[in-house]
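Here is one chain, start to finish.
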Amino acid sequence: MTDTPTNEQLVAGLVKLLTVEKRAADVHAGRPQKGGVGRVFGGQVLAQALQAAQSSVPKGKIAHSMHAYFLRGGKEGREIEYRIQRDFDGRSFANRRVVAAQENEDGSCTPILNLTASFQVPEKGLEHVDAQMPDVTGPDDLKSDMQMRREIAEKLGDKLGDAQRALMLRPRPIEMRTIDRLHWMNSEPREPRAHTWFRTAASLPDDPALHRAIMTYASDYTLLGTSALPHGLSWMRGELVGASLDHAIWFHREARADEWLLYATDAPWSGAGRGFNRGRIFNQAGELVASVAQEGMMRKRKAP
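Its structure:
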């Protein structure tokens, strides 16, 4: 029987996963997730690509936005190569393009993601914020998602397959506390809005670039599911077929990913086999720290 990793070990593993290795000038490699099965989690590719881009920018410039397109699903168990193009280096701003690719059996490489990131030297400017933090239950008064998963697994008993049970109860480095029911267990149509608190399960180093990368990683967790809420359908129950198509983040202010952050998501539209989702990330002081947008393929699974 394998020992359950501690929170510190889980978070150390996440930091290692998101630390890309330089292989040549403007070429980095991202390691695979330990024990990963099937398709690579999109948040991992986004975060590793951002880390590669951040490593190529001179000190003093920080990421303020990134836009990415998912081209193909990556395969677990293989490294991902990140090639950087230095498109622009100005006094205040810089821009990088990153292509993520995986090697095939024949030695050729297949692109799986394109990312463009913009960087800026911090400066004072005109300020306004037209976004109020939702009035929701605080994280200290909520059950953890893992606790809810355990309760669901116990309730389902033998109805849950071994693979599903292992996936549901796998220890995670990101602690999440959902306000309302877990969206993938919801079968009643409801408005396309969701709220989740998240943070790493243990403390992180004082590295702002790493905190941005981990926020990027976590931003892909619950976003696409928001557009499924009005339909009462779930990927976990096998009722939908879907995949992320693109993902954009704007970083408004520095924030720590090891302190509670509220992820408020909404989906103003779905149709044509796609769902459009937006997200706002707030710190506990109620300040807007990042905005997110994503469109994903979303199709009702056809009956066999």
